[in-house]
Amino acid sequence: MDANILDTISEAVTGEVFAVWFLIGAALVFFMQAGFAMVETGFTRAKNAANIIMKNLMDFCIGVPMFILIGFGLLFGEDVVGLIGKPGFDIFTAYENFDWSAFVFNMVFCATTATIVSGAMAERTKFLSYCIYSGVISALIYPIEAHWIWGGGWLAQLGFHDFAGSCAIHMVGGVSALIGAKILGPRIGKFVTDKKTDKVTKVNAIPGHSLTLGALGCFILWFGWYGFNGAAATSLPQLGSIFLTTTVAPAVATLVCMIFTWVKYGKPDVSMCLNASLAGLVGITAGCDVMDCFGSAMVGVVSGLLVIFGVWLLDQKLHIDDPVGAVAVHMMNGIWGTLAVGLFATTSAPDCEINGLFYGGGFSQLGLQALAVLAVAAWTAVAITITFLVIKKTIGLRASVEEETRGLDVTEHGLVSSYADFMPNSISIFTGKTSEENAPAEVPAEINIAERPHIERSNTEKNKYTRISIVCKQNKFEILKNELSNIGVTGFTVTQVLGCGTQRGAGEMYRGVPVEATLLPKVKVEVVVSKVPVETVVEAARKALYTGHIGDGKIFVYDVEDVIRVRTGESGYDALQDSEG
């Protein structure tokens, strides 16, 4: 077969493969919505979990129609927008000459921009207000600046380079998040202010309720980022290079962050390291296609330090409350990643035609990158400020004090808890005989509490009943349980509690801020005894718990007036026994 024909077939096959990969990349970017949802949910309190999930869902569901109706036309220029208003205009016909795979890809990118804002304004924003500004971002703010960069606009014509969106997406989302969080104000209890001077005197940490969810979200985002950065690759060597830089930068950023927080705070900060992974990913996004391994590592080093500085700056100096670190991750590293192209771009990378400052390219590309940062940031700041102020003056931007205190899950969505019937503060454990019937049943009429038969007590039963409450370390519970079983205590109730004695517990840091509530996790075990002597229970508990160190726990002893078994109506001594009688 002729060589030219083989080359033609090879090119056609390669083109088809990359077209399919382009759509797979779009699907990976869509899956990043799950990552953002998990990160934001984990880094905020449980009472707002459903609200965060709903916002991340609606980012996409609002963004899609807004992008179809307005955003897509603005992004790709005057051709489509100019058709509006002409006789016989049909929006779907107007788009029929455009590449639908490009539409889908840009649509999922658009949703990412709005999602970034959600985290910084979490736990105190009205849901309706959020839906409105999310729609504005998708319809106007993102498409216009993205047209400048990717739609043939003036920045693209000048030679500005932002391969996957450090500037177009992450910086824009971060700037919007910064302005929104500032206008909205901090969560209740985040900052302590002097009443006379109105100056912030103390910063309080408000830990998120699940670092597990936060970590899951981080890994999902990292996985999706291979599509985020790599979907637009035009050759296999370039795709491999993009995967390399997309892996190296976040890994180095996380390592640097771990070492820094370990040295500074005495312990490696988990939540900060999760943020550092995302910061490295944001930092490499603009130049993932034009940097080599060394350049991506340098991007990671700066990103790992910059995210720590960003969180500190917002908390300690600017006093802007950002629950998930969105500004430090996306805005600051979006700016850094965009500028880094002008420093580390190298023609040794596949299909790269520009060199940065450190590779002999001079200041021209760096200056162009800086110009784009200023222009896009200015457009975003003006547009989003107007949007937030209009919302604030009309329907209101912030939830009420009562709504914020109770949580947005119940006030905005009617959910008492987004974790259904999970009750983390109440656990009942029985070691004696118990009924296997768990379904609720009606109380038999013959032992209805209102008409409970009188049961005569023996002299033994007239002895007092005593409740013994034991507060101890969680890791001592199994030992305590075994000791109580050995002395005949066959049923007890266990509650997970938080507490501290006069020693005030151990110091704790969260994202570089001391946690004000120095409460330690404890277990409270409660038993009621009559037959088993109180002294025996106390001695067994002391034997199980004693280490000689502060924090061994405490034992409280109370008198109990009476005990009633719900199932049979028995009272007193009989109610405390294991017999089925």
CATH topology of the largest domain: Ammonium transporter fold
By CATH's scheme, which homologous superfamily of the largest domain applies? Ammonium transporter AmtB like domains
Q: Oligomeric state of the chains?
A: single chain
Question: What is the tally of beta strands?
Answer: 9
Name of the CATH first level of the largest domain:
Mainly Alpha
Which series of helices and strands comes N to C?
HHHHHHHHEEHHHHHHHHEEHEEEEHE
What would you say the CATH architecture of the largest domain is? Orthogonal Bundle
Secondary-structure content class: alpha+beta
Low-pLDDT runs: 79-85, 422-461
Instruction: Report how far the terminal alpha carbons are from each other.
Output: 93 Å
Helix content: 55-70%
Radius of gyration: 31 Å
Global geometry: elongated
